[in-house]
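Q: Joint fold for the lines below.
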Amino acid sequence: MKKELYIERVLLFLALSSIGSLVTITVFIFWEGIPLIAYTGLKNFLLSSHWAPTRGHFGILAMIISSVLVTIGALVLGVPLGLACAITLAEFAPERVKTLLKPTLELLAGIPSVVYGFLGVIWLVPLIRDYLGGPGLSLLAGSVILGIMILPTVISISIDALSAVPDLYRDGSIALGATNWQTVHRVVLPAAGSGIVTAIILGMGRAIGETMAIIMVAGNALKIPTSILDPVRTLTANIALELGYASGRHREALFATGIVLFIIIMILNLAASAITRRR
Amino acid sequence: MSRNYLHRIKGLFEFPSPSGRLILALLTAVLLLFAGLTGGGCGRQQTQKAVCIAGSTSVEPFAEKLAEVYMHRHPHIRIDVQGGGSSAGIFAAEQGAADLGASSRELIGKEKKLQEIPIAYDGIAIIVNKQNPLTNLSLNQVRQIFQGEITEWSQLKLPPHPIDIITREEGSGTRNAFEEMVMGEQAEITPMALVQDSNGSVREIVADDPYSIGYISMGLVDNRVKALSVDGIAPTRENVKNRSYKLVRRFLLVSRGLQPGSCQDFVNFILSAQGQSLLESEGLVGVGD
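A: Joint structure:
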């Protein structure tokens, strides 16, 4: 009995320490970043796109816009592909194909992001430059690479959501004379709706937080993009690019960038759970 | 329910058995030991003679390389290399906080009272793609391109196509030097410019993109890209040494006055044929003749 109590306490302690590290990270980011926001003013920080930290300009508007655009681009590409793939595998594919393809797709998630970035630079960027124009390193290249990177997340969570729909629903629909596609489209998809929304939001989180691949393919220019062929710098890229040499205000500004990223991701997650709960 | 939970949290800190207390004590001891081991600083190892170098982040990697080779040959001497920037390094040397300050800019004003030891030249090459027929730009044209005033190759009498400008990230030593020597006080590099975080990836993109222009440390230019002459002077070792090529900075070590000892010995090593050839193999141009 005593032994059990002891183990319970050790486990509780470990659980609290993992939450503790989360809290520490949050406090640290805010602690390091808030002074800069107080120094420049929230408006100058968020609504200016003039970023020249060594000359005292700390506007991150262009990066916020770029992050949002790259993420939207990734979703436009990744969600239809991923959903189609998930529906095929969960509803139409024979069991043998499914057991072969699902682990293969999940393997995609295990490829390091630097590899995706490298493939993008070697292969996608020259294609865009030669056939579409611009420098190749662009919003489009970033979106395509991220669209591929979020596929495993979107697919595997969507498959789980679709498989969780009871077969009774399908049988009922078929019994009423609906075709397979009508069943999937009218019955199974709505029933799996919240799970699919979760899949999309998690994919979104993956896209907005991705750093290495995006540094390699997006070009990192500081202006607000006016075309999908323009180079862009995301919030994550800004932090990773400049942290190496930054000191003083510049370093604080990078942490403040982290705060903005943190808040965006919090809003995303809250939205996700709100949507899931309402259904 | 929640009362029970709170009670459990409270109970967490009272270990149930003597063995629990023993484990707690052991854990504390290990933690303290760790703190003791990692908390030790510069002053701890009395048996070793230490030389502290602080300053320019551009000099830092080269100084680290030199220190590594030097320490390998003299295991009883330890050389600490720190960054912080040229101004901080010069200040540290003035105050005596560091034995040697590293600077990638020239001394100004009363800093000139310090003893300066040039250890190498670092040239910055303006590079374009091999397919680009251009061979020369004036310093002014380079500035206008990076400022975003010249945006089309046709403005330089080449077939029309937008110029892809590649620059380094804010805070990089190479970018700093480029801004000082090309852009001057007022001009800023255009936000249109693509930003890469290393000399290598700037070179990679320029080698790949026929319409690009970038700048990298001279030692890293290879045959996949073309280094342009600036104001008609090619970026060669000779032109760097005789200082006719304009985009050159000196790497300096500064000190309040070298005393005979390990510090002097390390400086001698840097200026020796071996130290200089080490710097040359890392892409710098040595100061010897």
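Q: Anything notable?
A: DSSP finds ten helices and twelve strands in chain B. Chain B has two domains: 3-121+250-286, 122-241.
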